[in-house]
Design brief:
Layout (H helix, E strand, L loop, with lengths): L30 E6 L5 E4 L8 E5 L2 H4 L4 H8 L6 H12 L16
Antiparallel strand pairs: 1-2, 1-3
Bound molecules: zinc ion.
């Protein structure tokens, strides 16, 4: 109970699973893992076993649907993503919503 405040990321604390939106810690099953692949892409890690730096978001719709969620994730992963990839990730995260409040992609283009 001594290490706090911003500092170099060299602490040997065990990986803590904390939602990047609400900062709430939760059990493994309560959080969804997003991992940065070796290719530098950000993927939703459904197995929780993918290698690489990971960030977590809990399963609450408020968090999954939070504005800027993808930006928070990529910030945690220290990564820059293009708008297209951010959208792809957001779409994947949307599939995690426990209660889809709308059909996916109801627009057929204008
Ligand atoms: Zn959360």
């Amino acid at each position: 109970m001594s290490a706090d405040g911003p500092g170099p990321d060299v602490m040997r604390a065990p990986p803590q699973r904390r939602c990047v939106v609400c900062q709430q810690t939760a059990g493994k099953r309560g959080l969804n893992r997003v991992v940065r692949s070796t290719e530098g892409r950000v993927l939703l890690d459904r197995t929780g076993k993918a290698a690489g730096r990971g960030a977590y978001v809990c399963g609450k719709p408020a968090c999954l649907g939070a504005a800027g969620l993808t930006q928070r994730l990529t910030h945690s992963l220290r990564l820059r993503m293009g708008d297209i990839e951010l959208r792809a990730l957001a779409t994947e995260l949307n599939t995690l919503m426990p209660d889809p409040s709308g059909p996916a992609m109801a627009g057929s283009g204008r």
